[in-house]
Structures are given as structure tokens and as C-alpha cells.
Request: fold
Amino acid sequence: MFQSILEQTLNLTIFMIVLRMTVPILLSALGGLITDLAGVVNIGLEGQMLISAFTSIAVAGATGNWMMGVLAGIAAAMCISFLMGVFSLNLGVDIIITGFVVNAFGSSMTIFLMGLLFDTVGNYSPENLSKIPTVHIPFIQDIPYIGTLFSGHSLFVWVSLVAVLFVYYLLYRTPYGSHLRAVGESPAAANSLGISVMRIKYSALLWSGVFTGLAGAYFSIGMTSMFVKDMTAGTGFLALAVVMFGNRNPIGILIGSVIFGFASAIAIIVETIPNSSVPSQFIKMIPYVVTVVALVIYALRKKNKQLS
Reply:
């Protein structure tokens, strides 16, 4: 097992897998970060991604245009975010309950629509699907190792890195970011300064829809070429853990996402080793064990800050 991991590390295969697994965690975590800083804990990241993943592949398959699929996925996730705002902010439903409802709705509705629209159960894979393209950088792609590191990755790898810089600028270099953080820290004080608390929280939820929409689209028309029932497999909850582990900061979230992506990559590599003596159930636990460890580290770090 260790020899296989070492071989795939030396030939940079593990690096490629880490990037693939990091993208959806990173994008959804950025969406969770914005809502968290606004004082809205978005538990519904998982459901938003599922709805986006299904919408993206359905539209991309029908139109033959991956960009239309991505835009449709983002729009669908934003609609769900808006509805979350209506129920939690206007009607007073607890945001945690609203999030869990969104997760259940996303899982059941995508299964229902898959059977209704495509007469299939379990997975849907359209013919001649237009996928998110891979970026090959001229000249660099032909250089050994360097080409593997910087070329031949999905467009969304670069989109996710740009998204980190964008969110950092949005939160810490714009008046909107100052207002959003003020609302999250003290809504009453922000309101007394003339900041519309309701508007900021709605906008935060819509931003989460944008990023979970991107993550969902990547799942179905970027990472794979199909939609599989519950294909996000807990990524939304991993993203929430990354928000805390990354100290509620875009750069910290990038680092945390890479760590979680590495854990997922190890699980994939070990699972594909022929005649492996490691039980498959144990292998599938790896990302979630890392989640528990990350939360323990976060709790200890927070306790130390309080004591100091």
C-alpha cells in the first residue's frame, strides 16, 4: 500500500487527484464562509450542490454547451439560497432546520427528476456531453514535472484559485465586506449605523448559491460526466468543517481544503490498490476521520485563545 502511494507521489498522480478533490470542497467552503461571517450558518451546502449538479448536467446535455450548464447550475443554487432566506429571515424558521430541509430536498428531488425526465435510477450520463474544458498551457505542458504541476488541469481548478482571491478582496477590501462582517458580529450595532441587516444576509446567502453552484457544476460536468444519486457524498459538511478549520479566512480555507483534498486522494488511491488488505469501509472513513481531527484542533485552538 505504502509503495503504491509513494509511486503515485513521485509521478505526481496524487497531485492531480488532490486538485480534483480540492475544487468542490474549496468552492463550497467559500460560500459557507460568506454566510458564516454574515451570521447565517448555511447547513444546506450539500443540497445546493446536488441541485446544481443535476441542473448543470441536464442543461449541458440538452444544449451541448457546458457554460450554459454551469450558469443554470448557479441559477438553481441561488434560487434555493433565496428560498432559504425567505423561510429563515422572513418567516422565522430556524436556519439550521432550513438547511437540513434543503439537504433532504436536494437528495430526493434530484432522484425524482432523474426518473421523471430521463427514466433512469441511480445515475444519468447523457451522450455527447459538453464538459468543462481542461486548460493546457503552451510550452509549459511539455516540460517534465512542471507541465504536470501547472498544465492539464480543469478550468475550475483555476476558477477556484481566483475565487479565493476574489472572496478575500470582497471581504477585506470593500465596504460591502466590512458591512457583512459587521452584521455577523453585531446585527443591532450594524443596523444602528444604517446597514440593512436583512439585505446583507440575503446577499450572503446568494453568494453561497454562486459558489455551491460552481461546485455542483464541477461535480457533474467537470470531475465526472454523469450525475449520480447523492454524488456530493458529504462534501457540504466537509466544507463547513473547513470553514472552521481555516479560521474563517479565505487563505486558511484554501489550506484546509488542500488538506481535506489530500485525505480524499489517499482514500481513492488506497481503494484502487489491487488485493488491498485494508477494508473498504475503513478507507471511506479517511476524509471523515480527518474532519473529526480538524474539529478537535479547532476546538483546542479556540480554547487556548480564550484562556490567553
